[in-house]
Backbone:
């Protein structure tokens, strides 16, 4: 029996609220042995108060030593085993622009780039063209026509766009065309499986027609395609956890991830204050709120049964990237077994009552503390 | 390879003794943040001495956030994955009255209830009739005869009884007849699989004859049937751990669970003193003793190679029920890596050398510390 079979049978609706606050990339490293981490250095009176009232710990986003991208990082937080449900980058990008992906669609992330007369890439991001320019170019790309497949081209931001192929017999196992370095030519799309050959052919034809359309543009005179993927079949949070869930998130990527597990999107908002206002306004309508933000030590007036603050992965400034280091987490509820932690930081959380655990168990812990899970077995 | 395949190949008999003391529902919560738990408040000089000599930790009975019933709680302690081996309610109830269930028997939990003239239930527990009345009614129900199947009706307690169907071709996937609310009629027993149709037919006929027998009784003039189940196929502790195991337990439920994994039952006993005497008397006959008791801080004279004290689940007085909070555990053996824990309590065990772990690994830890497991691999 897997954990979702278990929770499907045990969850109860008791009208309690659960708020999961995800601070992007929370968790870091001291710059010197014995030093303090970024979080330990910051002044965080609100989160410290939460740590005192709640129970703390450290979470492995996936498994010890595994550095997660935002996809696996969030799936874990939402209570899905990130090794069981894998999401291609194209799918993430499409979900992030509110694109309604069908189950057979192949989604691809596109980047505008700059090439010289030999087709060698001179700028992989086409000078980071503004989004308005991206929108304009995407409109031109909609002139591409390929027999037997419906094409959708949608702008994302700056030099990024999404291409979706809709048709029969398309699979997503196709290599990126981005050579990942300046000076090389874009690669031909290459199928890794027989079932993906048709996808590769369509992608190649799309690139050919697109190059014709773009060749006199500057600096975005070419494109690369990455992250070919189909949407994975994934049960909703309502199905497996009995939660009517809403996402209060600004960035498309996180909105897309939340939509993948069936969350309702609250309208896009620009600031943390807007997000808090959206939370208040929709308080009665949902059981669970996923609140994603770039870090600040803020507090809100609502009183959920369970309030969790954590991150989707560590991002030590020393490494200047996502990392595998376990992420601090604090869970506050009247039902928690409090610990000695009175400050929210990595070294304090290490001594917390939640111990070190895999992120995919966070949701069962949240449900338990909200008294939304019945006893298992007699 | 699962853990049992591993231990089957590695276990050795070295005549060492292992004693697992399970204190019912050990583990709780502080009433206020920063306060002490029930266990931390209690005076426990014997267990504190054990903690000082041994290695401590906290156990998840099933997984983080999952509250176990006594069934899954004990299966974990006995070294069985409680998500792999699930026990139906009827089986637990039958085991709990020392009923010797056969491998093909279907066990069902029965409740006497009260219905009005339209057969609508007015009291799902028949006014909680006393056990003596239950015994009397059960005797009357033994008059029921159904072709091709042997029926056993046994009283449990108050309004509860057990019905066992013994015959060929009976499976246990049948829905409860209890509508779970007052005002509704008992449901017809409904098979969820073709293999369970015969069971459903027999149950329907049993209910029909039973209603005739009970119709002039008051208040128990009807019954409902719940938790249809067969005994799960489960290897014995001798098979997977090489242990000749005995149960020293007072309550039927725990005796039943121990019998399920092949333990020998020492005769029922009324007090902890009786239990200790039974342990002494049978010391040479067994390798492993499961000693279940309602909490006291006691000590015994025997010197097992490994002595473990723990609980089957937490039961915080604040929640007045089983809970998901991890359960304190201490393991004392000459082979253990001692830690700094000198007091047996939740916050101390949190800092113990066993860390936090799933209960299903307790038995391998016990075997290891008893030097009953060989090296795995060359």
Residues:
């Amino acid at each position: 029996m897997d954990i979702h079979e278990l929770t499907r049978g045990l969850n109860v609706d008791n009208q309690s609220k659960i708020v999961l606050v995800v601070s992007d990339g929370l968790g870091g490293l001291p710059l010197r042995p014995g030093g303090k981490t970024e979080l330990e250095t910051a002044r965080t009176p609100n989160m410290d108060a939460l740590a005192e009232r709640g129970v703390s710990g450290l979470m492995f986003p996936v498994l010890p030593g595994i550095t997660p991208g935002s996809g696996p990082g969030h799936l874990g937080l939402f209570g899905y085993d990130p090794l069981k449900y894998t999401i291609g980058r194209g799918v993430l990008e499409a979900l992030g622009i509110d694109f309604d992906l069908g189950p057979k669609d192949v989604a691809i992330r596109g980047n505008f780039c700059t090439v010289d007369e030999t087709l060698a890439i001179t700028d992989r991001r086409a000078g980071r063209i503004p989004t308005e320019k991206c929108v304009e170019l995407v409109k031109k790309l909609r002139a591409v026509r390929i027999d037997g497949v419906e094409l959708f081209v949608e702008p994302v931001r700056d030099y990024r766009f999404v291409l979706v192929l809709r048709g029969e017999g398309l699979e997503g196992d196709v290599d990126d065309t981005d050579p990942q370095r300046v000076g090389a030519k874009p690669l031909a799309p290459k199928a890794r499986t027989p079932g993906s050959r048709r996808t590769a052919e369509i992608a190649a034809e799309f690139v050919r027609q697109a190059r014709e359309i773009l060749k006199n543009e500057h600096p975005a005179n070419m494109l690369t395609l990455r992250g070919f993927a189909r949407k994975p079949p994934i049960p909703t949070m309502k199905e497996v956890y009995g939660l009517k869930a809403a996402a209060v998130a600004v960035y498309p990527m996180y909105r897309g991830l939340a939509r993948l597990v069936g969350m309702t999107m609250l309208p896009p908002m620009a600031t943390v204050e807007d997000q808090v206002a959206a939370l208040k306004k929709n308080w009665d309508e949902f059981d669970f709120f996923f609140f994603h933000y770039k870090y600040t030590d803020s507090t809100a007036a609502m009183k959920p049964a369970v309030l969790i603050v954590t991150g989707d992965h560590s991002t030590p400034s020393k490494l200047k990237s996502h990392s595998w280091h376990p992420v601090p987490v604090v869970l506050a509820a009247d039902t928690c077994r409090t610990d000695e932690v009175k400050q929210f930081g990595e070294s304090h959380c290490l001594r917390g009552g939640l111990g070190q655990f895999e992120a995919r168990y966070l949701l069962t812990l949240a449900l338990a503390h909200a008294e939304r899970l019945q006893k298992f077995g007699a």
In short: Chain B touches chain A at residues 29-30, 33-35, 37, 58, 62-73, 82-84, 86-87, 89, 92-93, 227, 316, 318-319, 321-325, 346-347, 350-351, 355-356 (CB under 8 Å). Chain B has a mean pLDDT of 94. The longest helix of chain B spans residues 197-214.
